[in-house]
Amino acid sequence: MARIMGKKQISQLTFFDYCVGITIGSIAATMSVDQNVKITNGLMALLIWGIFPIILAFLSLKSMWFTKMIDGSPTILIQNGKVLEKNMKKNMLSADELMLLLREKGTFKVSDVEMAILETNGQLSILLKSDQQPITPHTSGIPIQQEHGPTILIMDGQLLKKGLKERGYAEEWLLNEVQKQGAKDFKDVFLAQIDSKGNVYVDVYEDNEKKEES
């Protein structure tokens, strides 16, 4: 049922998703230990609570108003570096709890925050002031080479030929690379990965490492 409802249910994006998850778990637990509960009634309840979120999710895609009604809307807690006490009270959030949420984001000073938003899932999103944001190559104007996602070439001793072909390398080249890093053959490699610059990371099985040491 969790697979049918999608990853949104597993991540519990909103309060409603959280309640649905608890309810389904409670029904399943009751069915497994309470002999007075009929299997048909329990399965029907699970079916209803499984289909209900799917219907609501579909309706949410069609209407923003319906989405706000079910999931609520984000609340600004800090704006222009100032705490909005009225919004804090609406969400029954104390100063200590706000500081806890800020510390979880790695921020210890309210004065460093330009804006903080309490999301519908209870998480706090923050935007630091310009002078507190980390320097990146983009902000400093330094040109860098574009980095692409790495590709796994060997997994559990098995050569993944598709990834190797997409990267444009030959098996002989890869074998030479893994041998440089302590493996004799592909089957000796637990994991091998190549990045966009052609650097190969190789992790061999522990048994092979111990044999080499001995």
UniProtKB/TrEMBL annotation:
Compartments, as annotated in UniProt: Cell membrane
Sequence ranges assigned to domain YetF C-terminal in this UniProt record: 62-194
Pfam hit, one: DUF421
PANTHER family recorded: UPF0702 TRANSMEMBRANE PROTEIN YCAP, UPF0702 TRANSMEMBRANE PROTEIN YDFS
Family, similarity comment: Belongs to the UPF0702 family.
Transmembrane segments: 12-33, 39-59
Domain YetF-like N-terminal transmembrane: 2-58
Keywords (A to Z) from UniProt: Cell membrane, Membrane, Transmembrane, Transmembrane helix
Topology in the lipid bilayer: Multi-pass membrane protein
Protein name in the entry: Uncharacterized membrane protein YcaP (DUF421 family)
